Amino acid sequence: MKREQLEAARDRVLLDVIRPGLDILFCGINPGLVSALTGHHFARPGNRFWPALHQAGITPRQLAPAEQDELLEYGCGVTNLVPRATARADELTREELRAGGERLTRLAAEYRPKVVAVVGVTAYRTAFDRRKAMIGPQEERVADSLIWVLPNPSGLNASWPVGRIAAEIRRMRAALFPAPPLSA
């Protein structure tokens, strides 16, 4: 991909992968330029979202970004706090993130996922004015959905390698959807 192509994708909007009654609606911060150019969430090479979903057991194999619609088969969807594409999340304004929190609340009220998994603690803190929020489950809800904050899977977030992100997704899944007891 050439720089001109990526710059032409700036401010494009990605479509949500969503339907009513999902188990998990993953919510990224906003699309990067590679995602906007391809039309697929978490499409930048080096992003650990798709490998982490597979390692966590959410998907039976590692999906490619172009296969994002298959998430629906596994009870999952994907959206973004801010739909506008940028090269870096720090290009977003506080107002855009706050509006993104309102947008996410409307989506959760309309589609009613069991849990909204916000991918990025700093963006979550700003969008929902929760300055002390940490990775993990949150006390509040968005509409009627539980909220779980996950680490940002961007390659820029070096403190969270894919295995550690996958472990947090497994922790979320186990807490929210416990396995049924084995029958005797």
Automatic annotation (TrEMBL):
GO molecular function, one term: pyrimidine-specific mismatch base pair DNA N-glycosylase activity
Keyword line: DNA damage, DNA repair, Hydrolase
Keyword DNA repair: yes
Domain Uracil-DNA glycosylase-like: 15-177
Lineage: Bacteria, Bacillati, Actinomycetota, Actinomycetes, Streptosporangiales
Pfam family, one: UDG
Source organism: Bailinhaonella thermotolerans
Presence of keyword DNA damage: yes
Top-level taxon: Bacteria
Name the UniProt record assigns to this protein: G/U mismatch-specific DNA glycosylase
GO BP, sorted A to Z: base-excision repair, AP site formation
